[in-house]
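Lecture 7, part 2: worked example. A protein chain together with magnesium ion.
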Amino acid sequence: MDTKVWIVDKYVDKLENNPQVVDAAHFLRENEVVALPTETVYGLGGNAESDEAVAKIFMAKGRPSDNPLIIHIADKQQLTRFVKEVPEKAERLMDKFWPGPLTIIFKKKHGILSEKATAGLDTVAVRLPDHPVALALLQACQLPIAAPSANSSGKPSPTNAGHVLDDLNGKISGVLDGGPTGVGVESTVIDCTESIPVILRPGGVTKEQIEAVIGEVQLDPALLDEASKPKSPGMKYKHYAPDAPLYLVNGSKVFLQELVEEKQRDGLRVGILTTKENRSEYNAALVLACGKRSELETVATALYDTLRAFNQEKVDIIFSEMFPNTGVGHAIMNRLQKAAGNRIINE
Ligand code: TXA
Ligand code: MG
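Predicted complex, written out as C-alpha cells:
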C-alpha cells in the first residue's frame, strides 16, 4: 500500500476546507485508516462505527484485540449518539479540560460503535483533542474516529509524522503531517462510571488538576502495585520499549556513571537518558538530554523521540535517570517504567 503524506500548516484558518484534510477525510469515510496529529501523540484514525475500519487499525499496529480504542470527537454533542449517560462529574471535567488531553470512560449505548473498537466492553473511552488539524479532520469527516497511538504495538508512541512512517509506512493510507505534537505523553484516562472516578492511566492532565475540579479521585491500584490487574486493558502490556534494554537508575549521577563504566568494560555501547541540566556530567557512547528537569513538561514532550533516538544509534543498553512521581512526572515515570519492563537499579 502506498502511504500518502499530507503536509498541513496547523496555523492556517478554515482547516476543515483544506484540500489535504478533505482528502484524508475522504479516506476515513471510505473506511480506510489515516494517521493524524493530536496535542499528545499522533493517532491512527478510522471510522469507529465500522468493523472494517477498526480491523484495519488493529492489523496495522499489530495490536491485541482485547485492547479497546479511544473514540475521538469534535463536539460534545456527538456523545449522545453512543454514550448512555453523562455523570455530573464527567460534565465538569469536560467543561474544564476539553478540548484537551483527558479521556473519559462512559457507559456505552450498544449497537452504534463497532464492538471491535470497544473490545466488546459495556464502556467507551472518549476524548475531544486540542489540535487544529485533528479537529478539522473530525469536522470534515463527520464521524466518531477511533484512534490509538499511531505506533507499532509495543513501540514508543509517535510524536511526529516521521515516527509514524518509521512504524507504519506501507501499512496505512496516509498521514496528516501537522508537525511535532506538544504534550508528548498520551491523554490521562479517567473512569467516570464510578461515583469516585478512577484514573486508569496518568497523562497530560494531572491528578492534582483533576482533583481541583471534582474533588477526590482514585488511582487504579495497578498503577501503584505491579501485581494487580489493570482496569484499562492496554496498561497490562509492555510498551514504549526502545530496542536495547532500558534500566531506571535510582541513585546519584556518580552511581549511574559507575554502572556505565562497568558495562563499557564488558565491551557494550551504553546510552544514557538524562536532562539538559545533567548532560555534561556523564560520559558514554550516547548521552541524550530529554528536556529540562526543572520543567517536567519539556521532559514529557521529548520522551518518546528520545527513546526512539537510542534505536538509531544502536546502543546495547540504556540507563535512565528517574523523575519525581508528581504532576506530569507521574505520566513520565509510568511510561519509563513500562519501557524498562520495571527494571530499576537502586543505589
Ligand atoms: O493521547 C491519547 O490518548 C492518544 C491520542 C492518539 O489520542 N491515544 C492513545 O490511545 O493513547 P491508545 O489506544 O494508545 O491508548 C488507549 C488506552 C489503552 O490503555 C486502553 O486500554 C484504554 O485507553 N481504554 C480504551 N477504552 C477503554 C475502556 N472502555 N475501559 C478502560 N480502558 C480503556
Ligand atoms: Mg498507545
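The chain has a mean pLDDT of 96. The pocket of magnesium ion (ligand 2) is lined by residues 148-149, 157 (CB under 6 Å). Keep this in mind for problem set question 3.
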